[in-house]
């Protein structure tokens, strides 16, 4: 991926080039075809190879010169990695402003800056990026996260190794080995904890990935100046191939990743590398030494750089055949980059580095470590919660509200008749356009474990308006539930006291679910947070409770227990919550089914193709979820479900824009504009005028 060997090294260890080829082909296949299921593990193969090759280079230099030159090392690394990497970033960002609408293009430019600065992994972690969400919504530069991990390794490990050389050869090798082994074990322990507690963070973090590089480092130190018996080589070849093969076919990243489930591939890669450390190469390694695979290994860095931008742009511009077109362009783009940028700059950097005097430059290394450690600590703190604008008595209407359900349905039909809708609205579709963001910035949406602590804030911050004499309407549920809030506030029009009780990723129904990151503790936190929210609703004693939840929770339940069991649990959980509210209050309860989810409009619409590819249909899972909620409401007292499908779709076809207004800000949350325009329809549907006048 990032550390392609020089030609001399490749001639001595051509099987390593073959391993690189297998790794990059796995990554490309995984991204292009979602097969094999563990294709993303090709990155883990690269990590082991990079740790091994870099350490072997440092060992040779230390044995030859008695020290290592950090100056020469950094010149070689920058010359080797930066020109090609920066070229792809520049081309990708420029293409982004041509193809994508402004919000996505600017996000891509920020991704480009993070990539060039080698902090793309920290940016992805801070944004809560879901690596497995699918390529349609991904940044074309998302794959730079792994390059950033390696480049952070290149800052830290050579400095530590240079310190070890102060002990002299061969004690230096022993010191380096013990430090590498200890650091690898520590990183693996951190990865085990992070993979369980915050897996989305663990996927990208340096501290949870360093052990994979450390395995390669330790292997290089152990094998330095040693050659294995040919019999061991054969055994290790088989073990390594099985480890990688089983890993990429059995691991899908849904849980326990990167630790412990990256372990088979990491150890398998180490075994394959070690199998080549013999005077008589095993004939089983012959496939990895073939010229085609060695060639792919030689250009693997450029292949890796180009494959993801080409795939993302290909899918965006031509959903039907763009993947194949991008693969056709990939090899020429990679070869030309390798031939005219990567290789010449690598050779030039090596020439410059060779002219320098050897030196440890420990002060430079210490400064770099301080910078990396400070940045890592800052990122590890995570984003601070944003709570502002404690009161909002009205929502400014973005345009004429839909006067009635009938008018809204006609407008949806008109949008379907004109699929190439005006796209100027997409240039202003910033994150703040999401109605869920509208609610979150007003303290209406809290983590499940903070509901009890935030109860006072929920009443103080999420009341629209703060009028104790008005009847109370509670909006209860997850982020999709509170995305209805601008419309409900517009519908209430000051006649009701609207209180939002939002719990992140946690449905209001009594069913145990996981969150999208797979965090082990979430299920229990959600169940406790829901119970605390119901206590708050009882205290508020509302006249009306409006419930809603995202389809994602139901989808994850289906993945965990199967469709039939998930549907039953969702129906019974909904009924339990409705009965609980009926027992605690005299409120009427209304369920608003979530809008049918879609590919985010900024991912499917481009300046070239418009929004024609953004139409979608309700999924089978969405229909099962809605049917379960309808059945539960039919069996509960004072409960009803509103059929909202016609607000978004006609004949199972759902436009991305209706009357020039973007419907969904992302995959499932309403835009503030569209939610607000639903005010009159919600007033009519929820019968707010009648109840408020009593």
| Proportion in helices | 55-70%
Structural class: mainly alpha
Mean pLDDT, rounded to whole units?
88
Number of strands: 9
Would you give an account of this structure?
- The structure is a single chain.
- 60% of the residues lie in helices and 5% in strands.
- It has helices spanning 7-12, 14-33, 42-65, 70-99, 102-116, 120-126, 144-164, 171-197, 199-204, 206-223, 230-250, 263-275, 291-298, 300-317, 322-355, 362-380, 405-417, 435-440, 455-461, 479-482, 485-492, 522-540, 551-561, 563-584, 601-604, 620-634, 672-677, 679-686, 688-693, and strands spanning 445-446, 463-464, 472-477, 497-503, 544-548, 588-591, 639-641, 657-658, 661-662.
- Strands 1, 2, 3, 4, 5, 6 and 7 form a 7-stranded mixed beta sheet that branches.
- α3 (42-65) crosses α12.
- The longest helix has 34 residues, at 322-355.
Task: Describe the structure concisely.
The protein has 694 residues and is mostly helical.
Label this structure with key terms.
694 residues; seven-stranded mixed β-sheet; two-stranded antiparallel sheet; 60% helix
Topology:
Elements: H1 7-12, H2 14-33, H3 42-65, H4 70-99, H5 102-116, H6 120-126, H7 144-164, H8 171-197, H9 199-204, H10 206-223, H11 230-250, H12 263-275, H13 291-298, H14 300-317, H15 322-355, H16 362-380, H17 405-417, H18 435-440, E1 445-446, H19 455-461, E2 463-464, E3 472-477, H20 479-482, H21 485-492, E4 497-503, H22 522-540, E5 544-548, H23 551-561, H24 563-584, E6 588-591, H25 601-604, H26 620-634, E7 639-641, E8 657-658, E9 661-662, H27 672-677, H28 679-686, H29 688-693
Parallel strand pairs: 1-4, 3-4, 3-5, 5-6, 6-7
Antiparallel strand pairs: 2-4, 8-9
Helix pairs in contact: 2-3, 2-13, 2-14, 3-7, 3-10, 3-12, 4-5, 4-7, 4-14, 4-15, 6-7, 7-10, 7-16, 8-10, 10-12, 11-12, 14-15, 21-28, 23-24, 24-26
